[in-house]
Design the sequence.
């Protein structure tokens, strides 16, 4: 289901609350995006931070859900663990190219890194344009233009051309001031479904939380499995979300209140 608008305050009422805490722990599974959802957007990928109280809340909610809380992110597993330290949660990293099940076991076929010719060509493109930034994450690579937003069209066009030419096994994933290259067919929806096939997620109702285009795959997958999708922040695009929170700050506040309930 795709809706054009969401009434954030009204739809917020659908979210599990501290009062329903005893029920949700046995029935639900949470899938949390990081940047723009739990984390405020920062000028650079390294510039993000998370309050200790939010990490503690995520830990407490994960315990209450029997471990059925996963991170679904465009970041690498290493980055996710660094941001959420000391937690080491089940996760789908790099848009699903890296999967980790509960307890640390790595799952999934593992996807190849983009051809070196692509990374080299992207590097040359970025080096010639001050303000652009290349983030090489392994199976996924990103070109950030947050410092030079006027280059958006140029970046999207050129990265698309280079992927067509050098990396037929990969595809574009636009995001917030970024164009990412991820393994073809490897998205957050497929990742959510893969995690839902195994304990402690199997048999639970998935709730996916996200803000960006890449998160729409996860929101749609959660709905397809009988769950809910929660959009964080305002968007001017159609969304599969069935509930909403106004901002990452509201998301953190909701997590902390839920954990305290
Ligand atoms: O799937 P997510 O957890 O939301 O990660 C998506 C991408 O997030 C990061 O980039 C975005 O956040 C940065 C920090 O706020 C910001 O500077 C950048 O403009 C955003 O695009 C990260 O760098 C990417 O690798 C993730 O895929």
Sequence:
């Amino acid at each position: 289901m795709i809706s054009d608008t969401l009434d954030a305050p009204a739809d917020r009422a659908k979210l599990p609350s501290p009062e329903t805490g005893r029920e949700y722990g046995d029935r639900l599974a949470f899938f949390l995006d990081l940047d723009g959802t739990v984390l405020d957007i920062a000028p650079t990928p390294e510039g993000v931070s998370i309050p200790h109280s939010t990490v503690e809340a995520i830990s407490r909610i994960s315990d209450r859900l029997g471990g059925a809380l996963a991170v679904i992110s465009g970041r690498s597993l290493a980055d996710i663990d660094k941001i959420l330290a000391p937690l080491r949660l089940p996760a789908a990293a790099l848009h699903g190219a890296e999967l980790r099940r509960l307890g640390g076991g790595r799952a999934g076929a593992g996807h190849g890194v983009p051809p070196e010719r692509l990374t080299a060509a992207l590097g040359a493109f970025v080096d010639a344009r001050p303000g652009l930034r290349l983030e090489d994450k392994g199976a996924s690579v990103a070109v950030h233009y947050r410092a030079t937003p006027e280059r958006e069209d140029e970046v999207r066009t050129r990265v698309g051309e280079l992927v067509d030419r050098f990396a037929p096994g990969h595809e574009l994933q636009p995001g917030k001031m970024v164009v990412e290259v991820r393994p073809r067919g490897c998205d957050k929806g497929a990742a959510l479904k893969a995690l839902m096939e195994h304990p402690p997620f199997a048999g639970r109702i998935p709730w996916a939380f996200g803000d960006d285009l890449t998160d729409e795959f996860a929101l749609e997958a959660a709905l397809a499995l009988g769950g809910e999708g929660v959009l964080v922040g305002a968007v001017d695009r159609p969304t599969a979300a069935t509930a909403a929170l106004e901002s990452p700050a509201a998301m953190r506040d909701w997590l902390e209140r839920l954990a305290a309930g």
